[in-house]
Amino acid sequence: MNGPTPHEPVGASLAKRLSAREDPRLSGVVSLLRRLDAADRTVFGAVADLSTPWLDDSLRRISDFANFSKPWFIMAGALAALGGDRGRRAALTGVAAIGVTSFMVNQPMKLANRRRPHRALLGVPETRWVGMPSSTSFPSGHAASAAAFCVAVGAVVPGLRWALRVAAAVVALSRVYTGVHYPGDVLVGASVGAGLGRLTVAVASRLAQRGVGMGCGRGADTT
């Protein structure tokens, strides 16, 4: 069998393909990928082995509830309705960040074609299981959208930063805990989401500044 086994993280399969080229210039990359693969497996196994049945139901519910970015859209709606001008700006920026991130993660990045963890083989208790998504595993869309919204809204409403970070971290943890993602999927997803969240904030800020500038210019013409 040339491809990865159903429970093999992407690092191992990529390392195999690169090592097959027998190019000494790639030896460092192959070694790094194998170390990352080993770390991914070790952390996933450690989480699967946690004896925390009291967390199973709550994290399973959180993981399911986070499908389609529901918590973040609900929060955006609350901000828009109750937060005044700043709340509406935060909601718009947060939703825009989710949109950009979802496109990037679910389109070009999913082409990495990493298989989902095989929960039964890897020892994840069935009491934790949620529906296994049909999409590929790398990177985690849940973690990416959570991080993007957290960063974007936190930049506009700094008082919400820590609450949002905790919420995003719990969602990210739930994806590993329920066995639908490797830790590496979540870490990369969160990193990508945070970066795209910052980019969205920067673009929104630039557009707002241009709008103010043009508004001032029009005002000066009419006085």
Automatic annotation (TrEMBL):
It comes from the Bacteria. Pfam families: PAP2. It is found in: Cell membrane. Residues 90-201 form the Phosphatidic acid phosphatase type 2/haloperoxidase domain. Gene3D superfamilies: Phosphatidic acid phosphatase type 2/haloperoxidase (1.20.144.10). The keyword Isomerase does not apply. The keyword Transmembrane helix applies. GO terms for cellular component: plasma membrane. GO terms for molecular function: hydrolase activity. InterPro entries: PAP2/HPO, PAP2/HPO_sf. Keywords: Cell membrane, Hydrolase, Membrane, Transmembrane, Transmembrane helix. Its main location: membrane. It is a multi-pass membrane protein. PANTHER family: DECAPRENYLPHOSPHORYL-5-PHOSPHORIBOSE PHOSPHATASE RV3807C-RELATED, SPHINGOSINE-1-PHOSPHATE PHOSPHOHYDROLASE. This is Phosphatase PAP2 family protein.
